[in-house]
Specification:
The protein is mainly α and 194 residues long. The protein folds into two domains: 1-53, Arc Repressor Mutant, subunit A; 61-191, Tetracycline Repressor, domain 2 (Orthogonal Bundle), CATH 1.10.357.10. It has nine helices and no strands. Helix 5 (84-98) packs antiparallel against helix 7 and helix 7 crosses helix 8.
Length: 194
């Protein structure tokens, strides 16, 4: 009986996350009503509050999930290459391409910094993917591929540039926008090499 209740709670939480994610991506944070999310998955508003305490709590959980998936997508793209320099390039390219995903674009890049605040959003980004960038850059510095320099400011500069480029790509309909951005990224990264 306890296992069934635990499974039911987990299923309810998952359903709320899935529906919340769909709505946040489609409509944006401010247009979503928690009671409507609950009704769409067939649970009470009280059940939604039990799992997430508020709409902001549901949004925070959705942001964490999307950022985690994005971090995995970037890491997988990087690890597909044995060469550390190509790992950096592939990871950066995967991040830029992810901006085409409505969930990444609207939830992570547009709404999260505003809704959660810059500090919380940055902390969540750090946990999910920014640390991978810093680790990759640190490895390249250690290997002598990039000039010896402080890695943290370099990682923040590159991360900021890629976030801005991903936002621009998300709002640009031109068919050559992603390839043009990838070429610009390659030129930027080439400037870091010894």
């Amino acid at each position: 009986m306890a296992v069934n209740r635990a499974e039911q709670r987990a299923a309810t939480r998952r359903a709320l996350l899935t529906e919340g994610r769909r709505r946040f991506a489609a409509d944006g944070y401010h247009a979503v009503v928690l009671a409507e999310v609950a009704a769409a998955v067939g649970v009470t508003k009280g059940a939604a509050y039990h799992h997430f305490a508020s709409k902001a709590g549901l949004f925070r959980a959705v942001v964490a999930e999307v950022q985690h998936e994005l971090g995995e997508r970037v890491a997988d793209a990087a690890m597909a290459h044995p060469d550390p320099w190509e790992q950096l390039r592939a990871g950066c390219r995967a991040f830029l391409a992810a901006g085409a995903d409505p969930a990444v674009r609207r939830i992570v890049l547009v709404d999260a910094p505003t809704v959660l605040g810059w500090d919380e959003w940055r902390a969540m980004d750090e946990d999910s993917s920014a640390r991978h960038l810093a680790e990759a850059l640190g490895s390249l510095v250690t290997a002598g591929i990039i000039a010896d320099q402080p890695v943290e400011p370099l990682a923040r500069l590159l991360s900021g540039a890629m976030n801005e480029a991903a936002l621009w790509l998300a709002r640009t309909d031109g068919p050559g926008a992603l390839p043009d951005t990838e070429r610009a990224l390659d030129r930027l990264l080439a400037g870091l090499r010894n």
